[in-house]
Design goal:
It is built from seven helices and 15 strands. With 286 residues, it is α+β, with helices and mostly antiparallel strands.
Length: 286
């Protein structure tokens, strides 16, 4: 394996990377993560991703273990080991392990001790979006049964992973989630619908993750198009009645959804507006 892993200021071959089983991230999902795409070896929206990392740490009361300068320096040195042109950098920060186990208590729900924060990073190859033909994806609809702080980029992704697996088993790429009949987001994406040339997406709240790519699409991509965007709630009925649907995430940018359950959207083809936005997006990523 060619990938490397960063753990607490040291770099390892991926197959030799290890963390303690007593890390609170392993025991309780007590940590946060961030994912930064690199296109042609250049980070995309680095400052926005770093700001979200800081915010998530504050929200779960984990002290940021590094200064911003150290983060930048360590990341730059680490990604120099990456041989891929297009990849994502995964960053995870957990509360870590107790500084000592003198009380012989190896696991307790409350974080009552002093802990050694654990910082890990790895990278993984992704496609070059500029050379990637935009292809419609299938999605299913599922109830949103996650906790009420979805705006924290928590490593606790059990339901997201479960729903995504159910979608995969049904031949779909994504599961779009509903809470009380209102669309929130996808398992690993934000959702946009288009109706009568107007684009709509869920507003930021504790019920969705404030996607960095989502914000970029709203504030930079759509801004450069001839279309209006509204950040407001929309229902399952509006989703199914949409002229076009697309989702956004960090590694794939904009992806059209051409099937919802067994229903075709836009005759199962990528719509004109989605295609136009994708073109604008790929022109901006470098």
């Amino acid at each position: 394996m060619k990938n490397k892993v960063y753990i607490n200021e040291k770099i390892y071959d991926a197959e030799n990377a290890k963390v303690s089983i007593f890390d609170r991230g392993y025991l309780f999902s007590d940590g946060i993560y961030e994912l930064i795409p690199y296109f042609d070896k250049k980070p995309f929206l680095f400052d926005d991703h770093y700001s979200r990392l800081q915010k998530s740490l504050r929200m779960v009361e984990i002290n940021n273990p590094y200064s911003e300068d150290k983060w930048v320096n360590d990341i730059e040195n680490f990604v120099k080991t990456c041989i891929f042109e297009n990849f994502y950098l995964y960053i995870q920060v957990t509360r870590g392990i107790p500084e000592n186990f003198d009380d012989n208590i190896l696991r307790e729900h409350a974080a009552t001790k002093n802990y050694k924060t654990c910082v890990t990073m790895f990278y993984s190859k992704i496609k070059n979006l500029k050379d990637n033909n935009i292809i419609g994806k299938k999605s299913i609809i599922m109830d949103d049964k996650r906790w009420m702080n979805c705006d924290i980029k928590s490593i606790s992704l059990l339901y997201n992973s479960y729903a995504k697996t159910i979608a995969h088993k049904q031949g779909a790429f994504e599961a779009i989630l509903l809470r009380d009949g209102i669309v929130t987001e996808g398992c690993s994406s934000n959702v946009f619908i288009i109706k009568n040339n107007t684009i709509k997406t869920s507003p930021e709240s504790n019920l969705i993750l404030p996607g960095v790519t989502r914000s970029f699409v709203i504030n930079s991509v759509i801004k450069d198009s001839d279309y209006d965007v509204r950040e407001e709630n929309f229902s399952e009925e509006e989703l199914l009645d949409a002229d076009e649907i697309f989702i956004t995430n960090s590694t794939q940018g904009i992806l059209p959804i051409t099937h919802i359950n067994n229903k075709e959207i836009n005759n199962a083809e990528c719509g004109y507006i989605t295609s136009k936005l994708y073109k604008i997006f790929t022109e901006k990523i470098n």
